[in-house]
Amino acid sequence: MLDTPVDFSIGQVAERTGLSVHTLRLYEREGLLTGRLRRDSAGRRVYTEWDVQWLHNCTKFRASGMPLATIRRLAELVGEGRGNEAERLELLRAHRQRVQDRIAELQDCLDLIDNKVTAYEAAVRQGTADRLWGTPSTGPGTGGRR
Amino acid sequence: MLDTPVDFSIGQVAERTGLSVHTLRLYEREGLLTGRLRRDSAGRRVYTEWDVQWLHNCTKFRASGMPLATIRRLAELVGEGRGNEAERLELLRAHRQRVQDRIAELQDCLDLIDNKVTAYEAAVRQGTADRLWGTPSTGPGTGGRR
DNA sequence: CTATGTGCTAGACCGTGCTCTAGGTCAACA
DNA sequence: TGTTGACCTAGAGCACGGTCTAGCACATAG
Q: What CA–CA distance (Å, rounded) separates A92 from B49?
């Protein structure tokens, strides 16, 4: 059972990953790939299935706020092959922590926003009904100014 | 029961909000405050308690990814006083949706990261125990290259 | 009176991550 | 053979949100 060697042009990879060809070139230049990209006889980039998968991961990493520099480091480690799994793990764990923190932070902000929304819903209900507006009590953003 | 008119210098506000004085000046210039800031006889900014509270909200808005332009719009509405609660509500609801979407996106990325972490934990455990490395099956980021 | 601290403005600069342009190469097809 | 379309490189440009600098004004303390 040989693996079929499917290759992709940069345009095809762009289609598949949702990244622009510009971005793909940038990512290569920045060393985000796990190894040197092959080129065809005309000097055009040749992506493997692996690369596409890896880039798919990269988009997730990016979407979760991982900086390009960190992805580069991870790519280096993966490119080096077995033996550095502990370091990859460390890196991923640190990132996971940041993402979890970020979620918690957003959740916290969301609570405040929810409060505001609730307050305004009440205000609009009042306003629509009888143009009344109670005394603001939850600080700026709820009532008027001064 | 009169409200005590407590005023703050830009430095005091910086202390209280965690924003730098540079940023505070930027925010004023960008119209993020709900009204014109008072100045003292020497032309120095005079912040009220209200402003500090509002800026506190702003930091939450920023932390949740609200662009300065949106905060400016909200500040305008609040500055205009009563009557536009519906529009404020609309704006806040839209932002809430974005935050919720963002949380969901992060959560999704987190799942992938968790999988990777789990895989590497296993790998490291194996590696530490007997230097073994099973066949990678979850795509790039798990095994070696090509 | 002068030194220190805090504030002021205008505007330059910065990091991050794209995004686009100019000018060129190459393969494939009519 | 010529035209089209995808690709190439180098490098500029951009949006965003700060962050910092230069040069100056003012108030208060010693």
A: 43
